[in-house]
Specification:
eight-stranded parallel β-sheet; six-stranded parallel β-sheet; Rossmann fold; 2 domains; 423 residues; globular; 41% helix; alpha/beta
């Protein structure tokens, strides 16, 4: 496929906008989901018309933000277990009704099955597909990996959020993946200078206390079972430290049980899901992430942009964006002693913390989301140009529903029960 890039987009600016559907499993408080919200604020509204679709109705916290940014959102209406495949039929109907040029899948579950939906459409109604891989290949259930691998060649383009994500994919797929390091709305984050003092006051953090915090959903691999015991160690050392965590997820009850067992009380605040997670992060003195596996966490890039030094596991794409001893400290994943030592150093060594904060802010300037959005939109243009040079060629729908729940009976899926899927 020829690569026209940004120049091609500019040269063809007189063409009618191409229609893009973002398709994702959830619109809750997750990293990939927050990337969509950030992208919505910096998208090229003259060249592209965006809409979004998500599978799980219960995970809809970010829907209002997308709609406020002018992106219509469609709920595909499946239940909360992954074996409910009725959303596939609803996606098919949505694609027939709304006539998109490109469907951009995020995360393997929707991509692996969504590509099959697109393939089932008649040629005249079939959009091109693009997929972004946000996490390492092995982080997904085996059946999802198998389906993703089998259907990935149907895509017109593939994106990985970091070198480590691309390199974790099967060798036969790596050559087709372009690494686009996503980011955060850097300029907007710099404009909110009062967040730090406001957050610390709201959380009851006293002058002289160091606030160590994390923003991570409570699911397998995020390392809460490591972070909470380490927090107990620092509290027992009688250090002037307080902890806070923003996140929800399937392991929420387990995390709360560990918190109670360790008797952390208000020395470790469990804040739940927050629509203002970035604002809360701005109040941290240190950002901690004890993950056992990652792609490239949005929260790490947000911490850098806000000038918050990090203590993180050396996993996924994190070592590509944080230099140990410069913007933060790196530890071996799952190693309690290393994490204890690193956090202790951050708490007691104020000058080092200040130096790393300044370095983090400089480093964070490299991750402005607008750069990534422009590159992804150039990929969209190249994909459309590869379709015989036709850009914005689909017929335009006359209605503009928002949060549409598409009602259509699901195809038979008796052979795709949750047990068979291994989900």
């Amino acid at each position: 496929m020829r690569t026209l890039g940004l120049l091609g987009v500019l040269l063809l600016s007189s063409e009618s906008p191409s229609r893009v559907l973002w398709c994702i499993k959830c619109l809750g408080y997750g990293g990939a989901e927050r990337l969509l919200v950030s992208a919505a604020t910096t998208r090229n509204v003259e060249r592209f018309e965006y809409e979004a679709a998500y599978v799980l109705p219960s995970k809809n916290a970010l829907v209002p933000e997308l709609e406020a940014a002018g992106v219509p959102v469609h709920c595909l209406g499946a239940s909360d277990h992954n074996g409910d495949l009725r959303w596939m039929a609803r996606l098919r109907r949505l694609l027939l009704e709304r006539r998109f040029d490109i469907v951009h899948f995020h995360l393997p579950y929707t991509a692996a099955l969504g590509r099959l939906v697109v393939r089932s459409l008649p040629a005249w109604a079939r959009p091109r597909t693009v997929t972004t891989e946000h996490n390492t290949w092995g982080a997904n259930p085996g059946i999802v990996r198998a389906l993703n691998s089998a259907t990935l060649p149907l895509d017109a383009a593939n994106v990985a959020v970091s070198d480590s994500v691309r390199d974790a994919a099967p060798v036969r797929h790596r050559g087709r993946m372009e690494v686009v390091v996503h980011g955060v709305p850097y300029v907007q984050l710099q404009a909110h200078g009062t967040w730090r003092s406001d957050v610390r006051r709201e959380l009851g953090v006293a002058d002289g206390e160091v606030l160590v915090g994390t923003v991570a959903n409570m699911r397998e691999g995020k390392g809460y079972e490591v972070l909470l015991p380490v927090a107990r160690r620092l509290v027992d050392l009688d250090l002037p430290v307080r902890f806070a965590a923003v996140g929800v997820g399937p392991l929420e009850a387990e995390v709360e049980a560990i918190h109670r067992r360790l008797g952390l009380g208000d020395r470790f605040l469990l804040l739940g899901g927050r629509s203002d997670a970035v604002r809360v992060l701005a109040g941290f003195d240190v950002f901690a992430l004890a993950s056992l596996s990652e792609g490239l966490p949005v929260s790490v890039m947000e911490a850098l942009a806000l000038g918050v030094p990090t203590v993180t596991s050396a996993v996924g794409g994190i070592p590509d964006v944080v230099t140990d001893g410069v913007e933060g400290l790196m530890v071996t994943p799952g190693h309690l002693d290393e994490l204890t030592q690193a956090l202790t150093r951050m708490v007691v060594d104020g000058p080092a913390r200040a130096r790393m904060s300044a370095a983090a802010r400089v480093r964070g300037a490299r991750f402005d989301i607008s750069t990534a959005v422009r590159r992804v939109e150039a990929i969209y243009h190249d994909v459309m140009a590869g379709e015989g040079g036709r850009v914005g060629s689909r017929a335009r729908p006359t209605d503009q529903p928002s949060r549409a729940a598409i009602g259509l009976a699901a195809p038979p899926n008796a052979a795709l029960s949750p047990e068979v899927l291994g989900l």
